[in-house]
Amino acid sequence: MSGPNPALTQVAGLPIADPDLAAAVSDGLDRVEDLLRREVHSDYRFVTDTSLHLIEAGGKRFRPLLTLLAAQLAGGTSEDVVIAATSVELVHLATLYHDDVMDEAVMRRGADSANARWDNSVAILTGDYLFAHASRLVSQLGPDAVRIIAETFAELVTGQMRETRGARDGEDAVEHYLAVVAEKTGSLIATSGRFGAMFAGATPEQVAAMRRFGEIIGTAFQVSDDIIDIASPSGDSGKTPGTDLREGVATLPVLYALAGNGPEVPRLRELGVGTRELGDPEVGEALELLRGSRGLDEARAALDARADAARAELATLPDGPARRALAALLDYTIARTG
């Protein structure tokens, strides 16, 4: 008869069964938090205050978590791993400041966005300041790391430009959307996993596998968000259903539905789903149509395919608590769609 399951320790929202791994990752995240605050300090207090604005608002710290878990596949949490984990979080935070300006957002992580609290110029300059300090940190890790983070910057910008311009005439809308997600979301998460393995002394093959796993799980996380926005009953996910529909965002289930020939398509087009902002009555109708569409099924199938691809990458990595924690992170990403 088997004994009781080991107690799970929550680390950044991830349940980790192995106590030694949980302690190592938790300690690593504490070191990242400390370095984040030290790194953004400026002799000009206002710059420090604006930089700390989103740091202190919290967040999942998903990217540093992935870096630290990847490091545990090999040599563990060295000082270089902490620097790498901090640098990817600084890049992520910088993009949030810029995104809020582009989206004219007024809230971020339950607090006023920087552009709402101060103005667009302050938000843009704060993002630039964080990018600068991420680059400064990465310079301590050597020329390969500098090249990798520069390539990641380029992908982030390309993804934003691709999204801003929209699909070209004749371009497949689904392929365009997935390219945007891979660049805007997947690229930095890929670098997070890559850096963790790289600076913990993993083999080149393991580093490449973690890079691919990171890109896949980053894309999967966005696709799962898309599904939740349509499929989740009100309040179950902590997010109001139809948020993207209200904002006129064409997410993956919407694109799949509009590409089909189901009976709901003419009305979805008439409502302008994915092309304009919708009011509450329109959102309610669109949700009902989309929940019965093939678009939702196809989005779930796309998510499942990415989960299988991610598991294939994990299978090439050393077995142990870190790999099992990475598998749990993937399972959480998939399971949250219900």
Report what the structure shows:
- This is Polyprenyl synthetase family protein.
- Its cofactor is Mg(2+).
- The chain has 338 residues and is mostly helical.
- It has 15 helices and four strands.
- It has helices at residues 19-39, 45-55, 62-71, 79-103, 114-117, 120-139, 143-165, 173-198, 204-231, 243-246, 252-259, 265-271, 280-291, 294-314, 321-335, and strands spanning 9-11, 14-16, 107-108, 111-112.
- A two-stranded antiparallel ribbon has the order 1-2.
- A hairpin with a 2-residue loop joins β1 (9-11) and β2.
- α4 runs antiparallel to α6 (120-139).
- It is globular, with a radius of gyration of 20 Å.
- The relative contact order is 0.11.
Number of strands: 4
What is the general shape? globular
What is the structural class? mainly alpha
Strand-residue proportion: under 5%
What assembly state would you assign to the polypeptide chains in this entry?
single chain
Mean pLDDT metric: 92
Radius of gyration from the CA trace? 20 Å
- From the N-terminal CA to the C-terminal CA, the straight-line distance is 32 Å
Low-confidence spans: pLDDT under 50, at least 5 residues? Answer: 1-5
State the major sheet. 2 strands, antiparallel
Number of helices: 15
The strand line-up of the biggest sheet is 1-2
Helix content estimate: 55-70%
Task: Write down the secondary-structure element order.
Answer: EEHHHHEEHHHHHHHHHHH
Keywords:
Polyprenyl synthetase family protein; 4 strands; 15 helices; two-stranded antiparallel ribbon; mainly alpha; 3% strand; Isoprenoid_synthase_dom_sf; 338 residues; magnesium; transferase
